[in-house]
Design a protein that fits this description.
In chain A, 42% of the residues lie in helices and 19% in strands. By secondary structure, chain A is of the alpha/beta class. Classes of the chains: A alpha/beta, B alpha/beta. Chain A binds chain B through residues 3-5, 30-31, 113-115, 170-171, 174-178, 258-259, 261-263, 265, 332, 334, 336-339, and chain B through 20, 23-24, 27, 32-37, 39-41, 59-66.
């Protein structure tokens, strides 16, 4: 495969196709629409299912149905559309069927605007619906990483029979960048043994999220929590630069993490010992790595395109060992490296005592 | 080499395409590149712009506060970006549509009457390539040969009748900027 200049939304769609998605259901919303558009063109070409549903609520319930039938399936939307889908997310998680959701986040709350944002962090990492669960949440910082994580998302969804989110922001969705597609995977020929495939010649399978007896539902929850514990131990992902000798570590994901990387390099040019930790899985949060780093740095600076959401996870993982400061922009504003650098210098001067 | 560019103008002037042409060409030459369009409410008001970062090294931030190069297709874009330019930066203007006088003396400002020239050449839509040529003459970020090859490839067979006009416009822009008094 060759390196091509690709738009993030198109790359996400094509990567899902390469990963063997059999059925896509969605409803258009900026800044995600090119994803749906690409699916509208490619899925019928390949003889796979594409439905532009009448609403987000319909789309997520179609995903639920296809997932119950054992198909690799997905939907995509942007923040307000994701809110509309929340009931369906919870049913999918409660029924333990695999599904992949892409959220190309935009400014909120409410209808907000169509500019890049990371304001849905709480929404997607905490539960993305009612009830007691966390979806797996992956956050790419480049078009190439969006492609790579899309394939991973389908594999994790199948492996754990769970809901997996790929969360980008409008900037990743709209940006064009050189990237390389993986080869086309063959479609899965066999359905999983739990899938609803007609029950001919076998016992009836039942998939439901309804359990009227409290003891029964507690047992369901215990099983779900045990699964989430396994995921929490096995699926923490992050990447880092210049953390080896850093006194201050900047923590940011997606677009904010990428812009922070430029600011970190600028700070190094000024002789400040600064590094970057970029979480790739937002749930499970890379708490083990963050906890290790808190043993040897003097402070963290969290940068997000929201009012401060992941900063809570950084504080929890660092266990109050070191100060955790926050810098964020909201409402669709994207920080530039200079303002993050300014914040780095301010925090450094205030909190970093020696060892320079 | 690391340049942060803005292309800005009205919708329909080929602003986003000019930025994409640079991005595709940079990739063809093995450089690192990012391209971000404006897709916010401003584009509904008729203005369009994109940010292109071209670099020898992997690109962190795809957004910039102070562009090192701007190609402005109209007067509102000139007014918006002149104050934001990095000192010593290159500002190519579509002189046909300029009203405001430059205020800064620390920039390399190259006025090119692109709309008038394109109209004289019989195809107003090639004003973007005249400006692109001017950019290449002043900052050879990519080679003209690669640009021509990529341009023809991107215009495709459906627009084969426009190949020659676009290439001519590109060269006209280069000549003008080479000889322009700055």
């Amino acid at each position: 495969m060759a390196v091509e200049l690709m738009k993030g939304n198109v790359a996400l769609a094509e990567a899902a196709i390469r990963a063997g998605v059999e059925a896509y259901f969605g409803y258009p919303i900026t800044p995600q629409t090119e994803l749906l558009e690409h699916m509208a063109k490619r899925m019928p070409e390949l003889g796979r299912a594409f439905v532009q549903a009448e609403s987000e609520v319909a789309a997520i319930n179609m995903v639920y149905g296809a997932a119950c039938a054992g198909a690799r399936t997905m939907t995509s939307s942007s923040s307000p559309g994701i809110s509309l889908m929340q009931e369906g997310f919870s049913y999918i998680a409660g029924s333990e069927v695999p599904a992949v959701i892409v959220d190309v986040m935009r400014g909120g709350p409410g209808l907000g605007n169509i500019q890049p944002s990371q304001a849905d962090y709480f929404q997607v990492t905490r539960s993305a619906g009612h009830g007691d669960y966390h979806p797996i949440v992956l956050a790419p910082a480049s078009v190439q990483e969006a492609i790579d994580l899309m394939g991973l998302a389908f594999d994790l969804a199948d492996q754990y029979r769970h809901l997996v989110f790929v969360v980008a922001d409008g900037l990743i969705g709209q940006m064009m960048e050189p990237a390389e597609m993986p080869p086309m995977q063959p479609l899965r020929q066999e359905r999983p043994d739990w899938a609803l495939t007609g029950a001919e010649g076998r016992e009836v399978n039942t998939i439901a999220s309804l359990e009227l007896h409290a003891e029964g539902l507690e047992a369901v929850n215990l099983r779900l929590q045990a699964k989430l514990e396994t995921i929490r131990a096995a699926e923490q992902r992050s990447t880092e630069i210049l953390t080896e000798d850093a006194n201050l570590i900047v923590v940011g994901y997606g677009t904010a993490g990428r812009i922070a990387q430029t600011a970190v390099l600028q700070a190094r040019q000024q002789g400040l010992k600064v590094g970057l930790l970029r979480p790739i899985s937002l749930w499970p949060f890379p708490e083990e790595r963050l906890s290790e780093l808190s043993d040897r740095v003097q402070a963290f600076l969290v940068v997000e395109m929201n009012a401060g959401q992941m900063v809570d996870d950084v504080r929890l993982a660092s266990g109050g060992q070191v100060p955790v400061r926050f810098y964020g922009r909201m409402g669709g504003m994207v920080p530039v490296p200079e303002e993050i650098l300014h914040e780095i210098v301010t925090v450094y001067e205030k909190l970093i005592t020696s060892g320079v | 080499m690391h340049e942060e560019l803005i292309f800005a103008g009205f919708g329909g002037q080929g602003v986003l395409f000019a930025g994409q042409l640079l991005a595709y060409t940079a990739l063809a030459e093995g450089k690192h590149v990012t391209w971000i369009p404006s897709y916010g409410p401003e584009m509904r008001g008729g203005t369009a712009n994109c940010t292109v970062v071209v670099s020898r090294d992997p690109i962190g931030s795809p957004v910039c506060q102070n562009p090192s190069i701007a190609v402005v297709f109209n007067n509102p874009s000139f007014e918006k970006y002149e104050p934001l330019m990095m000192p010593g930066g290159l500002l190519i203007t579509n002189d046909s549509l300029m009203v405001t006088q430059p205020e800064r003396d620390d920039l390399e400002i190259v006025p090119v009457p692109a709309t008038e020239l394109a109209t004289q050449m019989g195809e107003v839509r090639i004003a973007n390539m005249i400006l692109f040529g001017a950019l290449l003459a002043r900052r050879p970020l990519v080679s003209v040969d690669t640009v021509q090859r990529v341009l023809i490839d991107k215009l495709g067979n459906r627009k084969a009748h426009l190949h020659e006009a676009n290439i001519t416009a590109l060269k006209r822009g280069m000549e003008l900027a080479q000889h322009a008094e700055v």
